[in-house]
Amino acid sequence: MQNHVLNYLDQIVAEKPDKIAFANDEEALTFAQVYDQSRAVGTFLHGQGVYKKPVVVFMNKHPREIAAFFGVIAAGDFYVPIDEEMPASRIQLILENVQAQILICDAMTREIAEKFDFGGKVVLYDEICQTAVDQEALENIRRRAIDTDPIYIVFTSGSTGVPKGVAACHRSVIDYIEQLSEVLEFDEDTVFGNQTPLYFDACLKELYPTLKFGATTYLIPRDLFMFPIKLVEYLNDHGINTICWVVSALTMISAFGAFQTVVPEHLRTVAFGSEVFPIKQFAAWRAVLPQAKFVNLYGPTEGTGMCCYYRVDRDFAPGEAIPIGRPFQNTEILLLNEKNERAEQGETGEICIRGTSLTLGYYNNFEKTNEVFVQNPLNTAYPELIYRTGDLGRYNERGELMFVSRKDYQIKHMGHRIELGEIEVCANTVEGVRLSGCIYDDKKGKIVLYYVGTMEEKELAAALRDKLPRYMVPNRMMRLEQMPLTANGKIDRVTLKQSYQSK
């Protein structure tokens, strides 16, 4: 039975030692190099007496950063990735939360790392990866491992401004690897193009299946996502055939006309998530890649990133949204109404998750953990945890699970309960709108729609009056040159609200 994620690396290095595993524009690491470097890092950490503890990895996005992750796991520890693009205040809060003994950095991040109030030891990756491997020590660590041991801590935003560290274990990641690989049909010929920062759980889609199949992952430079044509050319130059990106990265390419100049020549699998994919932009992708597989993925960080999928196998009308589909094996989706009962077809309820996709909870924060990792209200016979996502969903007439909105995007306006996400979906169907984000001014009772596109504000208002009930039509339309996005590519509604309030 598979009980440790590094078993994948052990197996593939014996089969394909010289094949490139991870690469960027500076360096490519083979599976043998990843294996050797990770075992050296694991031996170093063991020598420091660090076992079943968090180890902070603060490195630039690079193949060696991934090898550092695996080195932490080899030592029986769990990695905490941070990145210089994070605000310094957020990094400090993370360091205070995890209280790590070791911080691994590179030559580029060392100076920054030493400015933080950190009580542990700061070490250079390039030095510790030269450590002589202690084979016996690493074997002993592996023998003691069980699949509920933590593997990483990824921090999400908290409503109070304090980040929450989600701790995931080997079991949930292994099931994730196996299910995602089956759904997206990965194999040894898969070539991934990584988009997400390595401090997000979304990067799991490329990191661990690479080990399972002996695939290759290219870490695409961040700045290319500002230049759609160059980005597609990069995919072509590196033979990338599989991408698992946030919707905003995909729409940036289609909405800005990149396909009129260049098309992805090798893409066969396009997975997406994080936001609702505007149908007109999705249609543009499908028209360019008629033979490719398109899969909508859904899941929170607390559910190991992705736990639900929908293979797109039909056409969608302009006003439709793509379903989030069905759960992975060993996972069940419970749709609960306000009475904590199963929602009926067509009834909106909170999406709740049970099964092996559930993470361990929030590190050093039992209070927040107990708020959302709760007893299944449908089961009164024995202890059974579910995770309350805070996402609202419903089953459509086909029995497909649809994402509706966040609970905190639900407002009461003019006596009506409104999902702001529904307004965004509708706005995104309007010709001349590339992307939209909706907020609510609860003090003045106004719905405000920000959008990127060519359409004038008055024209958009008129178009929405034809598509939405009167009480749902935004009170203000505000056109932007560029939509603010979070680091993981989602619409930054906090920034939109702050911008509105400052006017």
Structural class: alpha/beta
Number of helices: 16
Residue stretches low in confidence (pLDDT < 50, at least 5 long) are none
The radius of gyration is 23 Å
User: What fold name goes in the CATH topology slot of the domain at 26-145?
Assistant: Rossmann fold
Highest-level CATH class of the domain at 26-145: Alpha Beta
Strand sequence of the main sheet, in spatial order? 11-12-13-14-15
Helix-residue proportion = 25-40%
Measured distance between first and last alpha carbons? 59 Å
Net shape: globular
SS elements, strand count: 26
Write up what this structure looks like.
The protein is an alpha/beta fold and 503 residues long. Among the domains are: 26-145, Rossmann fold, CATH 3.40.50; 418-501, GMP Synthetase, Chain A, domain 3, CATH 3.30.300. Helix 1 crosses helix 9 (204-213), helix 2 (31-47) crosses helix 3 and helix 11 (247-255) packs across helix 12. The longest helix has 17 residues, at 31-47. The chain is globular, with a radius of gyration of 23 Å.
